[in-house]
Amino acid sequence: MRIAHQYRLKPTTSQKVTINKWLDMLRAQYNYLLADRFGWWEKNRSYLDSCSIVLEHLPELREQPDYYSQKRSLVQLKESRPWYKEIYSQVLQNMVERVKLAFERFIKGDGKGKRSGKPRFKSKHRYKTFTYPQAKSIKLTKKSVYLPKIGYVPVVFHRSIPDGFTIKTASVTQKADGFYITFSLEDKSVPEYKCNIQPTTKNSIGIDLGLEKFVTTSNGQLIEPPKYFRKSQAKLTKLQQKASNRKKGSRARKLLYRKVAKLHQKIARQRKDFHFKTAGKLLEQAKCIFVEDLKVANMTKKNKPKQDKDGKFLPNGQSAKSGLNKSFNDAGLAQFVDILIHKAEKAGGQVIKVNPSGTSQHCSNCLSDTPKDLSDRWHLCPNCGLILDRDLNSSILIQKVGLGTASLKNAQSTVKSRERSPHPNL
């Protein structure tokens, strides 16, 4: 079993200077090696699927830079730039591995074949972490941690490392309010969790995630969204406007933007704390939780531009969509689902994702098609007469679909749009 614990560091002034210097040098070399890979990729790939059989000249192909060749280049780097000798060798080698992973995710994709976007070069203050891949040389005392070539750094151990777990890696990260160290801990005697719970109506609930109601459970519980970003938006705007009016590069501008960063960090921590507490409350109610398999990244995409015959851009509704995207990011639905899965595994439960197709457009009682717009907040079924909140209807249907007691495949309407039938009781 592998877990991670994060602690706050209290480095001295000289140690802060050393850490910042390392981060800046690692960022510069990261950008250089990434550019080297992109240079090879651009010059050696073919944009055509066929070419002439007769070629007048065939240029010599350059050897592809890989992890090992770029790792060997560190020897020459230290000779030409002796100041790189100040960085611990394994930390420098780990930077090469980060280049490899970023480039391979773009070219080949991850283990599931999903490719990420083109990796970007790291600007100043964007490279904030370096890692000791082998923690054998790291020593722990009651109030400090020994980091090679940095020394003993005071640390706040707010919780002890669990018995039986050994430190595998250690990552030092710079955040808005200081420096932190993250230990990756492993205990091979503890097996990975495998859930064997059989979901039933009694031990499970369905939850519907949204913006007006953060969580609606199938048993009728409603949890309102805290909207931390919206509450701090006025203060953020005031700070950012004040900072932008200061002279570029001035100390006053830097201090104000540091306040902006700390406020963003506070909002993120408030949101994460809310997610953990909400997940704990839900897991107290049921061991098995059904949730929609939402693609939040697709839901927050920008609208496609619209043009007329003359090429003039037309209104495409992006202004309203921007506000909706801001609400999605403020709610953090994807992060909440990840936290819910993590806490469920630790609590001996499980989270099962359900296909969200049709869960908000069908009746949870008779499965009949009941089309609704986003502005329609009540479910009014013309077939069976069921009246209830649309989110509650969705959560009940999510539970039924997850348990297999209801299927929406045959319930899908073949008519794309139709007039809503008035409810018989209204």
Describe this structure in words.
It is a single chain. The longest helix is centred in the middle third of the chain and has 35 residues. The chain is built from nine helices and 16 strands. The relative contact order is 0.10. α1 packs parallel to α3, α2 crosses α3 and α4 runs antiparallel to α5. The protein is globular. Strands 2-6-7-1-5-4-3 form a seven-stranded antiparallel β-sheet. Strands 10-9-8-11-14 form a five-stranded mixed β-sheet, with helices on both faces. With 426 residues, the protein is α+β, with helices and mostly antiparallel strands. Helix content is 38%, strand content 17%. The chain folds into two domains: 163 residues, no CATH class; 151 residues, no CATH class.
Distance between the termini: 57 Å
| Class per helix and strand makeup | alpha+beta
Taking the sheet with the most strands, its summary is: 7 strands, antiparallel
Q: Note the beta-strand portion.
A: 15-25%
Mind sketching the topology for me?
Elements: E1 2-9, H1 13-44, H2 67-80, H3 89-107, E2 129-132, E3 139-140, E4 144-147, E5 151-156, E6 166-175, E7 178-186, E8 204-209, E9 215-217, E10 222-223, H4 228-244, H5 251-285, E11 288-292, H6 296-299, E12 306-307, E13 313-314, H7 318-331, H8 333-346, E14 350-354, E15 378-380, E16 387-389, H9 390-403
Parallel strand pairs: 8-11, 11-14
Antiparallel strand pairs: 1-5, 1-7, 2-6, 3-4, 4-5, 6-7, 8-9, 9-10, 12-13, 15-16
Helix pairs in contact: 1-3, 2-3, 4-5, 5-8
